[in-house]
Amino acid sequence: MSEMTQSELLRAISEYQFVAVELNLYLDTHPGDEAARADYLFYSEQLRELIRAYEAQFGPLMNFGHSPTDVGDYVTSEWPWE
Amino acid sequence: MWIYQKKLEYPVNITTPNARMAKALMAQYGGPDSELAAGVRYLTQRFSMPDRRVKATCNDIGTEELAHWEMIGTMIFQCIRDATLEEMEAAGLIGYFTMHSKGVYPANPDGVPFTASYIACTGDPIADIVEDMAAEQKARATYEHLIALTDDMAIIDPLRFLREREIVHFQRFGECLEILQSM
Questions:
Q1: What value of ipTM does the predicted structure carry?
Q2: End-to-end CA distance of chain B, in Å?
């Protein structure tokens, strides 16, 4: 993970997040599906590690206390529409 | 509550100005079947849903719609950011420019401002979920119209992603309808 560029890491985060969103919405209507719950847990943990690696190198992705990192800063890094 | 993540759900990177597509994209930013209407519709309907699976679906799809609204806003901004006044005028955006310049305002392509009358909340779970299913299909159709209007892949690619999300959301709301009908 540490040898990935910023855009590669962001892309990986988006990919894992997409899987997590899909499984999350499926689980909303199928909360008892054990295989999907296991998949959701697996991808959630992978996603958390990717976000942690990103934030350690490039700064916080989230606001309101969810990105404890002293690298970079939330305010002055590029906004997504720039 | 909500936490903001400083990234788009799916990347948008439009480098060629396109005032004409900015105008068309406003359908999905401030029109009746826009991502804004979808997000507000589901997030307000969730309160009176009688089943936790249905509450979860309205909550989580409503949340995803806000991320889609951010994508559409980004697309409109990047389409008009470097557009000249002449290009804005040729695209029929002279009225828009007069009132909003390069700001991204929730109106439909004809300049009609967003209104809460675009959404319904009857408090009747079946009526509300059936509305949501129709809303997803209307948004899918709108994305297909938008895709037909341009050959810029930087615009088409995120539109394809958004179109596919409408199909998944329709599927999940259909499952909610089955849940409600079996109660």
A1: 0.95
A2: 29
In this predicted model, what pLDDT tens digit does every residue of A7-59 receive, in sequence order?
A: 999 999 999 999 999 999 999 999 999 999 999 999 999 999 999 999 999 99
Q: Rounded to the nearest 5 degrees, what angle is found at the Cα of A9, between the Cα atoms of A4 and A15?
A: 135
pLDDT tens-digit map of B109-140: 999 999 999 999 999 999 999 999 999 999 99
Tokens of B92: 């029929």
CB contact under 8 A, A66 and B9: no
Cross-chain residue pair B56–A74, CB shorter than 8 Å: no
- Residues of chain B positioned with their CB less than 8 A from the CB of A13: 7
Model confidence at B154: pLDDT above 70: yes
Q: Cβ(A61)–Cβ(B6) under 8 Å?
A: yes
Domain range annotation of chain B: 19-181
Ramachandran sector of residue A41 (left: φ over 0; alpha: ψ -120 to 50; beta: rest):
alpha
Report DSSP letters for A35-55, one per residue. HHHHHHHHHHHHHHHHHHHHH
Q: Does the beta-carbon distance from A81 to B11 stay under 8 Å?
A: no
Within the 8-27 window of chain B, which residues sit less than 8 Å (CB to CB) from chain A? 8-12
Tell me what the mean pLDDT of segment B22-33 comes to: 98
CATH 2.60.40.10: does it fit domain B19-181?
A: no
pLDDT at residue A1 in the model: 67
Query: B32: helix, coil or strand?
Result: coil
Start-end of H helices in A1-82: 6-29, 34-58
Q: Which residues of A touch B5 (CB under 8 A)?
A: 61-62
